[in-house]
Amino acid sequence: MDDYLREIQGKTAHDPYHNIIKSSSSSKRCVWVPGPVIVGAGPSGLAAAACLKEKGVPSLIIERSNCIASLWQLKTYDRLKLHLPKEFCELPLMSFPPDFPTYPTKQQFVQYLEAYARRFEIRPVFNQSVVSAEYDKSVGVWRVRTAAEAEYLCRWLIVATGENAEAVVPWIEGMEEFGGDVVHTSRYKSGGVYKGKKVLVVGCGNSGMEVCLDLCNHNATPSLVVRDTVHILPQQMLGTSTFGLSMWLLKWLPMRLVDRFLLVVSRLLLGDTGRFGLCRPHLGPLELKNLSGKTPVLDVGTLDKIKNGDIKVLPGIQRLGQQSVEFVDGRTENFDAIILATGYKSNVPCWLKESEMFSEKDGLPKRPFPNGWKGQRGLYSVGFTKRGLLGASMDAKNIAADIQSCWSAEAKHLISPISCPYFMQKHTDDVVFSD
Ligand SMILES: Cc1cc2nc3c(=O)[nH]c(=O)nc-3n(C[C@H](O)[C@H](O)[C@H](O)COP(=O)(O)OP(=O)(O)OC[C@H]3O[C@@H](n4cnc5c(N)ncnc54)[C@H](O)[C@@H]3O)c2cc1C
């Protein structure tokens, strides 16, 4: 009997799974996930799960919110439609329904994602915000902890928390004095509540431009702060989508030539945007996107409102006063509300304890597209390409193929704790095995 105990003690000292559980004892619940853990149930996380499923690899999605695609369902304005035509936004393995319009509404896009999750039987764990994920070298697994004090253990970790995980809210001098509403676009639903009000929209990306249009349509009086140069392109040109045409031209022509073409046609269709305070950058729209990730604005009618004076273009803000805004050119104007269309950022550095794959500075993969999807020790990223849903789909396919190639061999090893009677006897109270 003593010999038996000594043997068990000797084994447990070197048993990686024993050590995993021992050091997890502070967590309320510990879950062993045989396949990859995916953090985030947005389109990217769903695409990764579906591609894995198709290859026979089970996965588990952990999502902080109470629904899939929380960015689309909870943080976008009512009038939002996909900015790009549907053929460039569909996820792998399932097309949009043929009766959907070229630019589906956000409600249609969410319907599509819900059908997608149903079709691939993706059932994320909701209301679990990941607060840390760290590779445990001693046992070769990722420890993923949530705010609810659960710990998930996995061999592969897929980061799918998105480029838009947190709103960027700039600090503006005098903000506390302003007194009116100051909201980020992630909380803006419709211009209806601003009817009859003077509203300053800060930021001239796609969201800022569209919010201005929405405000006009609801009889508010918007002004737009434009601090930087910006490329505005018509959403459609020569009877087709500008994005689709650009992609097609890039197959035959160098980027600079395609840029030149886009700018000539835009000038013919939109006129000189610089005349209205919207000066173009020196680099062309595609080259700029490629180098800096800055997306050109696809105009859906805002420019006409700027041209006819319904939307005033103003320079950068110097400081805020009581319901007033002083601009860098010395002008001061009164406003009832300010809407910050100042974008989003990744939250990866807040929770992923790793410094090789992701940059601390912007929370994006350090390796440029198309190689940013794979890190070390079973770490992957999906949806950080600055190329929207198209980029996410490419990542998801690459990740699934890569994991599948080692899944069969690794799965055998990973099943060992479940099949080990000693492990089961000792740890069944502490550990839950995900199916
Ligand atoms: C207004 C707007 C319009 C857009 N239009 C288009 C378009 O037409 N075409 C296109 O290709 N792209 C578009 N985009 C880009 C858009 O970001 C992507 O289409 C898409 O939403 C990216 O999917 P994702 O899954 O990578 O990120 P998200 O959709 O942001 O999903 C990430 C998920 O991760 C969750 N999460 C974050 N942190 C944690 C955590 N710590 N723990 C657990 N869960 C977490 C979030 O709650 C979220 O559900 C648009 C973006 C915006 C803001």
TrEMBL record:
Signal peptide (UniProt feature, chain positions): none
Coiled coil regions, renumbered to chain: none
Superkingdom: Eukaryota
Names of required cofactors: FAD
EC number assigned by the record: 1.-.-.-
Keywords: Auxin biosynthesis, FAD, Flavoprotein, Monooxygenase, NADP, Oxidoreductase
GO MF term set: flavin adenine dinucleotide binding; indole-3-pyruvate monooxygenase activity; N,N-dimethylaniline monooxygenase activity; NADP binding
Swiss-Prot/TrEMBL GO biological process terms: auxin biosynthetic process
Reactions this protein catalyses: indole-3-pyruvate + NADPH + O2 + H(+) = (indol-3-yl)acetate + CO2 + NADP(+) + H2O
Enzyme class at the top of the EC tree: oxidoreductase
Entry keyword annotation includes tRNA processing: no
Pathway note: Plant hormone metabolism; auxin biosynthesis
Entry's family note: Belongs to the FMO family.
Protein name: Flavin-containing monooxygenase
Natural source organism: Sesamum alatum
Source lineage: Eukaryota, Viridiplantae, Streptophyta, Embryophyta, Tracheophyta
